[in-house]
Structures are given as structure tokens and as C-alpha cells.
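Model: You mentioned two targets. I'll fold them one after the other.
Researcher: Yes, keep them separate.
Model: Target one:
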Amino acid sequence: MEPDEIAELRTVYVFTPPDGQSWGLTYEGLEAKLRERNPEEFVRVNDGSGGPVRGSSMHFGITLDDEQLEAMALLSPEGVSVLDCTAHSAARFALWLRNTVLPGGTVVMFNTEWGLEADLPSTPVPDATRPRIAAAFVAHLEETGDLD
């Protein structure tokens, strides 16, 4: 597959703090940032008493550049995942997360559902422009293999 074709593949992107570190993420703080963007954004917090996810979780929608994305946040283990997403959309989301939600200078690690299945380690989201971040995501997808 060509890189532009790989960039359009959809998977789950997982964003976490580096091992042993914390972003200090709270559902309330994340919801406030979402509501600043769009007061009507979908947000639901589950207390963990039922459903497939153990412990509490926050499910939410976010619209970036006219694309509606579905995402999920966990406090333990701490992280945010964006579902059914292309590399370009994931790059937009990663920039929003790092620049708007998280404290300045925060390192954001990433992996994908495919990377986790292939036992690839999480790697830092580059401190770069959206196209360079998307290129790093495409390289990661290539590394997972089985893209034929």
C-alpha cells in the first residue's frame, strides 16, 4: 500500500502519558475543554458498575475540521482513545489533546489497536506539525505489518 492509502485506514489510536507518569487527567477537566469547543458535544461518564469497560470511563464525541469522532477516556490506566480514526484525524486529535487539554510541555505517547496487537511499544507523539505527526502515525501503521 502507498502511504496515502495507509493514511486513510481507520483504527483506534490510544494516547497515554509515559510509563510511570500522569497527566492529572480528570473527566471534569476534559468535559470542560470539550464544552468550551461545543456546548452540545456528547459526553457520558460511566461509573464502571456495568458494561464491557472495567472501572469508570468517559465516552465523548468531538468534531474536528467538520469530522465527528468518537473517543473514550480512562483514569486508570490513564489515557484517551479515539475510535475508528484515520492518521490525519488522529493527528488533529493529538494536537488538540496536547495543546488544549493537557498541561503545557506534556509528553503524549501513542499506539494503535493494531500496534498493541503486534506488541509494538508506545512511542511519543512528535512535537511537530500535524502533517509530520500524521506521517509518524502512517509509519507506525506500516510497522504493524499486514497492510497488503
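Model: Target two:
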Amino acid sequence: MKTKPACGPQRDPEFFEEIDKLFAKYPEAASRYAVSCLRLETVVLKIDFERQVGVSRVEDGRIITEFHDRDDDIVRLYRHTRCCQYVHGYECVRLCPIDE
């Protein structure tokens, strides 16, 4: 029995065809974005993006993301950062340091 891929063009070919068209229409903007699968966050880690947000930092050449409740003090401290990952409806799901 073949298992359907969790994410990607093999799973949702029509969606990716439309994304390809959109990226072709806006090539400059397309170079700033990527489509990512949220399976690790939502299925494996069981992150609830309505309640939680990722807070990322760069440390020793790695990007480290920790998930916190949106009303935690740490999230309030990171309000000076910018959103670097959105989900449908433009909800911010990850905060990142401001570019230096």
C-alpha cells in the first residue's frame, strides 16, 4: 500500500500549480518566500497556532525556534521583532529578529 505524502506537490498538485503561477507572476517577491509544510509543528509537536507562536533566534549559525503561548512574557519581549512566517489569513505564527 502506497502512503500519500504528508506535504508537497505530490500531495497537493493543484495548489502547487497555482503557487508556481503566482511566483512566476511576481518573481521579485517570490525570491523572498518559500512554501513550507507545517506537519512538524502541528502533528509532531502539536503546536496550536491560535494559542501559540514561534519565537526564533540565530545562535551559533543555527536558527532556533521555541514555541510559547501568545500571552507569555517572552512573546511580549519579542514584539520588537517582525513576523517572518504567516499562515492562511495572514496570521503571524513565527517572530524573528529584525534584520541588522
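Researcher: Noted. Anything on target two?
Model: The longest helix spans residues 13-25.
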